[in-house]
């Protein structure tokens, strides 16, 4: 099946709900009053229970203190209910004495207004002016009452639902991520929120979502939770209070968010990459980064902007793409070696973090005072050819088309002149710029790269034939296919153990090569082989639920069965792209894989939502259970923007 066109039918999208964490600031004075609990009244106002009384969020006192305040809440008519160690006070009524001899640990008010209190082994309900109790065979830590007398009960080692004398173990259906539960609350929408010493979680629509780490919480030791009236919750930890909000948003609005943060903190004279934060977590302390892979990362950003311009016609998108195109072309011009692109360059006076300072940096012979990094890899070349192709096709004017064609010709000639390799300013073949048959087909040290590098060079030659047609390129392409069976090599492009390591970075590079190759190749026999290669690759990658790979697969094949998973990933991806540490290996609701990844890290059997793991681009392993970080790095938004705008362009994602 041929690639989809822009006019293809798209999945229509409505507004979805985006998780957003908003810290509540200026609370030092409240915490000095020993806040013991949060609650939200029936008007949706957050209230604090302290040793000096109950206060609204605006600091106005709602009620004076009662001795040994344990809990508080609100009746349906918004009257305040306070629980002390030996009495219960309902606003406007005389205090009620608690049943004699019991040691209460908490209170919950049902949606109908019934008041429940609990000890470690009993739950009491106030009915017609009297207390009624029923025993539970659980060591109760916390509880919350829902509609129709459904009671959620947290024990030391389990979470239960109690109704009509029946106690059901929730572990049998949906085990909570972490236990024991210290506090819980039920929202009006039926969403259950729990707080633990290892973060918070909510049970929504039968699925748990885990919130932990600095992306979501001031710290992981949760002291109180209070569900709001819109599906979110207020969470109090030892370090502060945060509102986990469910904010209505469209994917286009999310794209605008990532576009803004990329422009504000990640763009360096057209180059786009991650940035460092010299004060971890502080988005005002940006230090731009000249990376090892500026050509690749900038190429992916340029590709996203090219699709964006093709979809929207916005001049600003074209200008962003044009600025990054100039940056990519300069990587070729800066080296003084015809057709050899640098990995990165640093102009005079630039304040940047220099990737891997050392012998691979050279002073440019063509741009005075500019340094560039050599030892260019195939990664960079993949980014260049993809970006040239898309900009030429979707954005370029005639003058730009001429220049792109000239640069593409220079780089392609360089590769062919040097026997399908890259040769740097030192006269040596670079470490990873190798596509020669003698290495790819015959050298055991290159067996892992056989399929990928064959795919890459065939794609690059096909792009060159599109941008700057040449009999030489046609003959080179034909020779690699017919004499060196490179098209057959692509069938096993994705390498897996025991034949090689599972390299997720190579998956990203393969995607960059698949797309232009399958857009441009018209020979039915070769297309059949390339599509077979992509089909095998997608079967392996499908469990990742990747937006990039799933959208690219649909764009190249017309098969849309993975588009839903891609859109879910786009929706659930966090707005915060800082590298906060995210831990999941301790969770009760996940299974760890028996094998570690190529870096020795624990892996999950199934990927989690991007909201629950560390931020990652498409060169990273999404199965990693635990990631490190203190918010000292922020990713740019290209990894999200590219699949989104590609999906829009190919009619897979609605406006």
From TrEMBL:
Protein's UniProt name: Two component regulator propeller
Organism, as annotated: Chthonomonas calidirosea (strain DSM 23976 / ICMP 18418 / T49)
């Amino acid at each position: 099946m041929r690639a989809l066109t822009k006019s293809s039918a798209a999945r229509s999208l409505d507004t979805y709900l985006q998780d957003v964490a908003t810290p509540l600031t200026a609370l030092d004075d409240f915490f000095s009053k020993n806040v013991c609990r949060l609650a939200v009244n029936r008007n949706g106002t957050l209230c604090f229970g302290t040793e000096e009384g109950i206060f609204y969020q605006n600091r106005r006192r709602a009620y004076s203190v009662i001795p040994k305040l344990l809990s508080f809440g609100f009746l349906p008519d918004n009257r305040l209910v306070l629980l002390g160690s030996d009495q219960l006070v309902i606003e406007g009524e005389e205090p009620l004495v608690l049943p004699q001899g019991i040691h209460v640990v908490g209170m919950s008010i049902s949606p109908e207004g019934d008041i429940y209190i609990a000890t470690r082994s009993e739950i009491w309900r106030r009915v017609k002016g009297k207390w009624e109790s029923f025993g539970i065979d659980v060591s109760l830590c916390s509880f919350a009452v829902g509609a129709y007398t459904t009671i959620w009960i947290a024990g030391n080692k389990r979470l239960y639902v109690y109704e009509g004398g029946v106690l059901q173990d929730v572990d049998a259906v949906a085990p909570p991520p972490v236990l024991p539960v210290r506090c819980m609350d039920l929202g009006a929408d039926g969403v259950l929120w729990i707080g633990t010493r290892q973060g918070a979680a909510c049970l929504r629509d039968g699925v748990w979502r885990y919130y932990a780490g600095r992306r979501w919480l001031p710290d992981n030791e949760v002291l109180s939770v209070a569900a709001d009236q819109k599906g979110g919750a207020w969470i109090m930890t030892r370090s502060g209070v945060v509102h986990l909000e469910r904010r209505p948003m469209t994917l286009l609005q999310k794209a605008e968010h990532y576009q803004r943060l990329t422009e504000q903190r990640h763009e360096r004279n057209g180059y786009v990459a991650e940035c460092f934060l010299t004060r971890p977590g502080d988005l005002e302390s940006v230090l731009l980064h000249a990376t090892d892979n500026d050509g690749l990362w900038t190429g992916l950003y340029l590709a996203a902007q090219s699709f964006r311009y093709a979809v929207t016609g916005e001049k600003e998108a074209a200008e962003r793409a044009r600025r990054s195109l100039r940056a990519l072309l300069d990587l070729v011009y800066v080296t003084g070696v015809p057709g050899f692109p640098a990995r990165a360059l640093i102009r005079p006076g630039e304040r940047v973090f220099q990737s891997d300072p050392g012998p691979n940096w050279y002073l440019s012979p063509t741009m005075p005072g500019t340094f560039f990094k050599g030892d260019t890899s195939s990664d960079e070349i993949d980014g260049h050819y993809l970006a040239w192709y898309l900009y030429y096709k979707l954005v370029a004017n005639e003058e730009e088309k001429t220049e792109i064609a000239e640069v593409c010709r220079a780089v392609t000639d360089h590769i062919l002149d040097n026997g399908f390799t890259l040769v740097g300013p030192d006269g040596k073949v670079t470490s990873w710029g190798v596509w020669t048959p003698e290495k790819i087909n015959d050298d055991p040290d290159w067996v892992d790269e056989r399929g990928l590098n064959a795919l890459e060079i065939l794609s690059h030659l096909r792009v060159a034939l599109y941008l700057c047609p040449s009999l030489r390129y046609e003959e080179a392409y034909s020779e690699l296919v017919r004499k060196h069976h490179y098209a057959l090599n692509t069938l096993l492009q994705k390498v897996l153990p025991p034949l090689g390591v599972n390299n997720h970075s190579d998956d990203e590079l393969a995607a960059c090569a698949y797309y232009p190759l399958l857009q441009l190749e018209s020979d039915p026999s070769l297309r059949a082989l390339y599509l077979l290669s992509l089909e095998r690759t997608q079967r392996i990658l499908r469990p990742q639920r990747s937006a990039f790979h799933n959208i690219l697969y649909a764009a190249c094949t017309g098969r849309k069965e993975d588009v839903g998973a891609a859109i879910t990933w786009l929706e659930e991806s966090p707005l915060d792209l800082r590298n906060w540490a995210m831990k999941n290996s301790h969770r009760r609701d996940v299974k760890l894989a028996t094998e570690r990844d190529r870096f020795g890290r624990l892996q999950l059997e199934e990927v989690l939502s991007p909201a629950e793991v560390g931020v990652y681009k498409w060169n990273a392993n999404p199965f990693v259970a635990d990631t490190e970080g203190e918010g000292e790095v922020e990713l740019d938004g290209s990894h999200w923007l590219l699949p989104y705008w590609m999906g829009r362009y190919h009619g897979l994602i609605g406006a």
